[in-house]
Amino acid sequence: MAHHHHNDPHRHGDGDIDWAEMAHLLESQAELFTPLYEHALSWLAKEVTEPGLIVDAGSGPGVIACLFAETFPGARVVAVDGSEPLLERARARAERQGAADRFGTVAGELPGVLGELDYPADLLWASRSVHHLGDQSAALAACAERLAPGGTLAVMEGGLPARFLPRDIGFGRPGLQARIDAVEQDRFSRMRAELPGAVAVVEDWPALLASAGLRHTRSRTFLLDLPAPATDRARAYVIASLTHTRESLAEDLDADDRAALDRLLDPDDRASAHHRPDVFVLAAHTVHSGVRPV
To answer: 225: helix, coil or strand?
Structure first.
């Protein structure tokens, strides 16, 4: 599933994540982050010229897959995901933007499902899906195998935790988001450790891509900078994200931080995220790519 573990609407809880239940949140987040994805895609487009087949491995509701269809009007795009309800949304989106005739979906779990694709991909994209697989090196090798000679594998992993609020919000202990990040990091490590066949690796993505047999590895980080005062859409995303934090991480935060989150989420409180003038969204996502030798 396409997603990230920093200030992300579907956090790594214990046990399985119901991605379909997260659909609306996943979609609104991806839509808000579209400027960042557009920059990443135009960076990739300099290397990948006129691809015939693009595969989005862990596509979720298809926001990025549809951006690929837009960026590369000659390409066929296949969205791959474990959740059929999310793929339904992806197909509906492709239909709305007039790309349905060159847009396909395949339901199944990564990386095995990649074996079901008809022919090699010129570009295989995996946005925050690899870190859900126990053996990340094996997953990258499986992805690399599906590339045409000269094809590109691009993974979006890492970057920086998002920020929505000033360090001192006027109540509670300053640094609330930094403490939430620390809890998330612990959760993320636990999630990774509990995955079937989990293998610990140094998360040096260019090195991992090289060990999967790819050349010309490179990395670039893309910024989403939506300054205060936040638009209604950005504010809604911040509220949804903080609500998810409150629901999924509450027991790992201390009472003061829980109380601060409650205030931030109270629509009747003028100092809440619903009303404050200083709400913003600042995030950075990193893309790592490598090319299969010809």
So the answer is: strand
